[in-house]
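In this section we walk through a basic example: taking a raw amino acid sequence and producing a predicted 3D structure, encoded as discrete structure tokens. The instruction is simple. Fold the sequence below.
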Amino acid sequence: MPHEGFFSPAQLMGYVAAAIGIFSFLQKDDRKLRTTIAAQSLSYAVHFLLLGSIAASASALVSSARAFISLHTRSTRVAVGILAINVTLGFLTADGLIGWLPVVGSCIGTIAFFWFEGIAMRLVLLSSTACWLANAIVVGSIGGTLLELFIGVVNASTCYRIWQAERAERLSPIELPSTPSAA
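The resulting token sequence is shown next.
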């Protein structure tokens, strides 16, 4: 059960985050995915802050910054710095093992954004989704629970669509140059 009513400010912000997140994972273009995830993570940070989950809020802020930064660089040093910031914030804010779920989820997302792309990135992001889903359930986030469930389904579907398109491209017949026919 949610810690607050279905239409409390915290839950309403969760619905906003869910709408942006759903739109994010419908994107086949990696840059659009990263940009919309940055916006979704920012709204998620406010949502979790309103629910009183400081670790999730901090991790969502790191996720937002990470998504924007990953648009401009895929530097290993930058990624390691983001991971270090996230883990440090985890030590400062996480309450027990459950509090580490969003921290781990955000770290997995960092790994996905900096070291993977295309289908591989989205598959790694599925494990991040599992962490955020567990966190959303524990803290009573209605929008977060719906978002993470939907992200799992949509992300898997998008992976399939990308795979189909890549497969079709690989299997398309090779066009040979026209040769004049012998008459």
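Looking at the output, two observations stand out. The chain has one domain: 9-171. The two ends are 80 Å apart (CA to CA). In the next section we compare this with other chains.
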